Amino acid sequence: AIYTWVDQDTCIACGACGSTAPDIFEYNDEGMAEVVYAGDGNTGTTEIPAALKDDLYDAVDGCPTDSIKLADTPK
Ligand code: F3S
């Protein structure tokens, strides 16, 4: 299982992740990324399905500030 969330203390609102993985990431009013998949609310408690793993890993690789966190258990 894989879980993800954005560290908004280090996100610089670059906008890459929502383009790479639009099913997982959107932006709040300040442009900071947040995990929205299945209503996760950036809590890192919603399992990301296998079909979205490639998009997720691409987003992690593409984040310039390493703000997209991964875990194999809920945060
Ligand atoms: Fe922020 Fe990284 Fe996405 S800087 S907007 S979490 S690609």
From TrEMBL:
Signal peptide: none
The 4Fe-4S ferredoxin-type domain, residue ranges: 2-30
InterPro entries linked to this entry: 3Fe4S_ferredoxin, 4Fe4S_Fe-S-bd, ET_Ferredoxin
Coiled-coil parts of chain: none
Keywords: 4Fe-4S, Electron transport, Iron, Iron-sulfur, Metal-binding, Transport
Keyword ATP-binding attached: no
Cofactor: [4Fe-4S] cluster
Function: Ferredoxins are iron-sulfur proteins that transfer electrons in a wide variety of metabolic reactions.
PANTHER family, sorted: FERREDOXIN
UniProt-recorded name of the protein: Ferredoxin
Source organism (scientific name): Paenibacillus wenxiniae
